Amino acid sequence: MAKPQNDSLFDAPPMGEQERMVEAILFATADPVTVQDLIGRMPHGCDPAEALAYLRKRYEGRGVNVVRIGDAWAIRTAPDLGFLMQKEIVETRKLSRAAIETLAIVAYHQPVTRAEIEEIRGVSVSRGTIDQLIEMEWIRLGRRKMTPGRPVTFVVTQAFLDHFGLENARDLPGIKELRAAGLLENRPPPGTVALGETDDDSGDADQSELFED
Prior knowledge:
Number of strands: 8
Structural class: alpha+beta
Distance between the termini: 68 Å
């Protein structure tokens, strides 16, 4: 008597069960998870990409959503309910104006070299500023540019996108949005330096206010 095909040990679980697996992994993991990570954890033959699509649809309109962050996925609080988590997510660490400006330049111009950052800011960028942003895991080294000296570039990280609820850097607010939110000051144009201005001037700013609407 022929053995039924659905008794094969290599059959993938039903899609509903695959959704449950993906859901369990995302809930149990604080950091975003890539599809490749899911493939490595789930039984042979599973299609986590399809399971994610169904799961994302099922969570639409709920208190938490399945969101894409760079090339990974995570379960996060719905954007309109973020105010409920305010006490838990407020950062106490301060960033200097130099660090905020450097971070913004990397976010909007990536991949960008240190020389390009300095050209846009109009002042030199200290090694400490770059090191601080790398230590915070908000920027990282990108590919070297195919120009004389092969300078390294900087790009924002997945942690940066996750912190600000962005799927990718293209979701950053535009100039009009920044001005409407009062986040653009009347600064001298790039390439000019105000008297007494250095890389460390004007004190600190709360990093939780960066790009905040």
